[in-house]
Structures are given as structure tokens and as C-alpha cells.
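wait is this the right file?? whatever heres the structure
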């Protein structure tokens, strides 16, 4: 896993756990880099990922802040488990505008499409786990 993904995961966990609340300012990229033992560019790349996910916004004072919104549930509470038949095909893509509205997704959040024959199910990639039958691939 790339280091910037590890940093993004750590900051995301701070947001999900409530350690960083809505509208809280983030430490500087230099501080985040130092905390995680990475370079400033790696920290900036991690923050860019979280901005695309809709978890961070740029405040009026040019500080990076946690996006306003409802409290985010923990990973366990937010996880939806989808049982996938062995013969299904799963692919990731960006949602259509209609799907984004219907699923309540922030810009930049992909969807997982489960195709079973001619039928398709669309699930938000964030908060969805897929389970295949044992030995089913």
C-alpha cells in the first residue's frame, strides 16, 4: 500500500472516530507529515484523497477542515455486507449523477456494480464489503 494511502487511512479514522469533528481545522501538511514519518508531498497527496472523498474542505481562511455534515458512524456500524454469488462479476466505477443523488454520495466516491446475468446492483464503494462463497472465487 502506498504511504499516502496509509496516511489518508489514519486521518480518515480520526474523522470517523470523532477525534476530528465537523469543521475542525486539520494540522498543517508539515505537521501531518512529521506525525506519520513521511514527506510533505505524501501528506498533501493523502489530504487530496480525503478531499475527493468529501471528508475535507478548504475553509474560508484557507485552512483544511473536516467537512460539515452528520456524524460519521464507525466502520463497523457503516459497513454493508453484500453476498455475491460465485458467478457474479463485480466492477468499480464512478456513479452516474442519478446514482450519486439516489445513494447520497459525495463527489469522488465510486460505486461497486454487481452483475448477475443481466441484472445489476449498484452499491457505494465506501462502507460496502463483498462476500463470495468459499471456494467460489
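ok assuming it is, sequence goes like this
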Amino acid at each position: 500500500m502506498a504511504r499516502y494511502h496509509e496516511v489518508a487511512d489514519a486521518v480518515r479514522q480520526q474523522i470517523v472516530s470523532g477525534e476530528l469533528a465537523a469543521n475542525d481545522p486539520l494540522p498543517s501538511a508539515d505537521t501531518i507529515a512529521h506525525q506519520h514519518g513521511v514527506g510533505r508531498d505524501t501528506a498533501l497527496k493523502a489530504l487530496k484523497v480525503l478531499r475527493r472523498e468529501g471528508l475535507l474542505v478548504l475553509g474560508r481562511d484557507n485552512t483544511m477542515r473536516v467537512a460539515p455534515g452528520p456524524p460519521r458512524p464507525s466502520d463497523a456500524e457503516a459497513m454493508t455486507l453484500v453476498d455475491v454469488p460465485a458467478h457474479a462479476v463485480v466492477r468499480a466505477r464512478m456513479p452516474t449523477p442519478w446514482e450519486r443523488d439516489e445513494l447520497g454520495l459525495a463527489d469522488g466516491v465510486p460505486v461497486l456494480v454487481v452483475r448477475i446475468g443481466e441484472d445489476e446492483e449498484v452499491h457505494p464503494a465506501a462502507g460496502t464489503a463483498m462476500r463470495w462463497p468459499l471456494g467460489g472465487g
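The first strand starts at residue 56 and ends at 58. so i think its the right one actually
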